[in-house]
Amino acid sequence: MNLENPSQENLKFILDELAENLNVVNREILDPKDYDLEKYGELKLMYDMIKQKGQLSAPETQAFIDELRSVRKDA
């Protein structure tokens, strides 16, 4: 899958992967309809960072979740 191009399908994939990697219980905060494709680059950067880093500490996980909240449409 080529994630370089912003699309709804790629956005959903990235958000699903972030939810898995961050062990998000409340998946509502990662609903693709709540994110704008204009923020795709920021979300892709977070995805790449998490994939590269692998295991995150609790404070790192919270920081990523806070960042996700900041790029939501209703933030």
Provide key terms for this protein.
75 residues; mainly alpha; 3 helices; globular
The fraction of residues assigned to DSSP E strands is under 5%
Spatial gap, N to C terminus: 29 Å
- Rg estimate, integer Å: 11 Å
Helix content range: 55-70%
Structural class: mainly alpha
Task: Identify the overall geometry.
Answer: globular
Number of strands: 0
Q: What is the mean predicted local confidence, pLDDT? A: 91
- Segments where pLDDT lies below 50 for 5+ residues? none
SSE order, as H and E?
HHH
Quick one: biggest sheet? none
Number of helices: 3
Briefly summarize what is shown.
The protein has three helices and no strands. With 75 residues, it is mainly α.
Q: What order do the helices and strands come in, and which of them pair?
A:
Elements: H1 8-21, H2 40-53, H3 58-71
Structure in words:
The protein is mainly α. The protein has 3 helices and no strands. Helix 1 packs parallel to helix 2. The longest helix has 14 residues.
